[in-house]
Amino acid sequence: MGTTQTQGRGQSLSHIVELQSLRGIAASAVMVGHALSYYQTPSWFHQLALIANGRAAVVIFFVLSGYVLTLALRRALFDRESVVRFYVQRFFRIYPAIWAASSLGLFYIFVLHWQFPVPSAGETIRGQFRVDRFDTLHIVASLAGVTTFILPPLWTLFIEIVASVAMPGIAFIVLHRTQWYIYLLGVSLLVSFTIPNTYYHVTMYFVDFVIGAGLAIPGFTTKAVGNISPYWPVPIRPALAVCFVALALTQYVPLPYYSPLMHILETLLATTTIVLLVGAKERAELPYFDFCPLRLLNYRMMLLLGDVSYSIYLLHYPVLCILAKVFAVLQARAGVEVNIVTMSVSLAMATCAITVPLAWLSYTYVEKPGMQLGKLSLRQIQMRWASAP
């Protein structure tokens, strides 16, 4: 996930409100998709629920993260101090929210998961929290973000952590050795297609960060939109609408779920979406299409959703699991059988209603203090360096 905001050329990324909102939409898609797939639903409903395309949302996170993190490093000298600063900031940006959400996840596993069975739960959730992995090693590994025992969405955070380790090198090539970028991109694409089936498919998804970083090449997005316009005179907002619809529908393409070809298609759509948003913003073209429904991306509520998107992504899974247990207990006590489709929709609505406020609390009292703690830690490190002989 893209979890860092930074300053862009002449404006902050937060001022490109469409990107902030895009992050919130992607996190919400993952949340709704997981909730709708919790139960064993009819085939027609399962197919309909695929439109909440969490797989494409993850790709958006990765490409956007590569772009944002590269912008964050644009003034770095890439010496010891700047690289350490980057790593410390990433650590305190990523881990406090993971630990907070893991606390809720551990509560669910200890208190509810095995004690209150849900007969109508789907195969995915039934195999999610395995008894044979309920040990100290897997709990610690999950808290470190390298396995999914406590929080299933952590597989993407593992990829994010690996990419963060490599980002100073990627950003240096993008910002200071641009002529090397094509070779880096070529190698990343080759690895993505030839050895995709590694741990959590990290080699397949790593190219997303490389492509996202390439968008931070000075002037690239502006030139890209400018070069498209003479040959493809389509207004920016309708073009964005096409990208959104295509991203929502890629799960209907008859390719394996983790197909490298399917992945690169979603990466291209996600990249095009970000290029259009950033490039059109720089060229001041978006205001001319305020009639379009995509104007919603500018609303304050959408921005707030973007602010809390990281916590939404982490917290929604234990929230929906807890709610499903509550629903099962209430249904058993009432002695009535509720239609499974109704249960799925109700679970999705309740998960959204509880997760978003909870994510705001996490953003306010965990994420922000975590970032402040990172700044304090950096000061301590800098003071030690200054006092060293």
Q: Tell me, rounded to a whole number, the average pLDDT.
A: 87
Biggest sheet statistics: none
Q: Quote the distance from N terminus to C terminus.
A: 40 Å
Order of helices and strands: HHHHHHHHHHHHHHH
Total number of helical segments? 15
**DSSP helix fraction:** over 70%
Q: Assign the structural class, choosing from mainly alpha, mainly beta, alpha/beta, alpha+beta, or little secondary structure.
A: mainly alpha
Structural shape: globular
How many E-type strands?
0
**Structural Rg:** 21 Å
Strand proportion: under 5%
Uncertain ranges:
4-14, 286-291
How many structural domains does the protein architecture include? Answer: 1
Question: Could you characterize what this model shows?
Answer:
The longest helix is centred in the last third of the chain and has 48 residues, at 340-387. The chain is mainly alpha-helical and 389 residues long. The chain has one domain. It has 15 helices and no strands. Helix 3 crosses helix 9 and helix 14 (309-334) runs antiparallel to helix 15.
Outline:
By secondary structure, the chain is mostly helical. It is built from 15 helices and no strands. It has one domain.
Helices and strands in order, then pairings?
Elements: H1 17-36, H2 43-49, H3 54-72, H4 80-113, H5 123-126, H6 136-143, H7 154-176, H8 181-194, H9 202-214, H10 220-231, H11 236-249, H12 260-282, H13 300-307, H14 309-334, H15 340-387
